[in-house]
Amino acid sequence: MTTTIRLAQQPEADALLARSPLAALVGMLLDQQVPMEWAFTGPYTIARRLGGDDLDAHEIAAYDPEEFVALLTAKPAVHRYPGSMAKRVQQLCQYLVEEYGGDASAVWTDAATGKELLDRLLALPGFGKQKAQIFLALLGKQYGVRPEGWREAAGPYGEAGSYRSAADITGPESLAKVRSYKQEAKRAAKAAAPAKAAGATKRAKSGKASKSSPTE
């Protein structure tokens, strides 16, 4: 079965994501503080600048750190923060070389359960809980990697029919829905912030009052 990916919204970049497990991992790593299309185009840009048609974990892991930063910084930059992201990409590749012989797909191919796969993703440099769950959902929804309990392990991102993350993007329409969901979530969080701060202040004052009260 041929996997069709449309995360980058750019044919060549999406084709690389579809065929390259490492490109998919690197794209997910880059997916923060930049538009998703920019992040998931990153692996293709890196591969081209390295002179190849795919990414090689061994090559990236062994690359001179300063030269790799320069490679990601060259215009157009691979990320808004190319220096820090170059370091993270190298750390990820070094981990894959040490733990999986440089084979990114080995992270998930023999995972028996969703929980086991989530634990493996959480161990990757640069992958916190949210990023790990989103990638797990992406593997299940679009790459056919579905160990027992994968939806549960992916949390809300594993829900069928949702439009919460990169895992749900299959084209321009779904991209717009995911972007709308994220914007609404940000608005809700911003609206809740003053009330949360007020509650914290009230609890702090209450705590001080209790400490200053005379004891019987």
Name the descriptors.
10 helices, disordered C terminus, mainly alpha, 216 residues
What does this structure look like?
The protein has 216 residues and is mainly α. Helices cover 62% and strands 0% of the residues. The longest helix is centred in the last third of the chain and has 41 residues, at 172-212. The N and C termini lie far apart (76 Å). The model is unreliable at 210-216 (pLDDT under 50).
Can you give the helix content as a percent range? 55-70%
Helix/strand-derived category reads mainly alpha
Q: Total number of β-strand segments?
A: 0
Strand/helix succession: HHHHHHHHHH
Strand fraction: under 5%
**How many DSSP helices?**
10
Main sheet characteristics:
none
Poorly predicted runs are 210-216
Give the terminus-to-terminus CA distance.
Answer: 76 Å
- Globally, the shape reads globular
Outline:
By secondary structure, the protein is mainly α. Helices cover 62% and strands 0% of the residues.
What's the arrangement of secondary structure elements?
Blueprint: H1 11-19, H2 21-30, H3 36-49, H4 57-62, H5 65-73, H6 82-100, H7 114-122, H8 129-142, H9 150-153, H10 172-212
Helix pairs in contact: 1-2, 1-3, 2-3, 5-6, 7-8
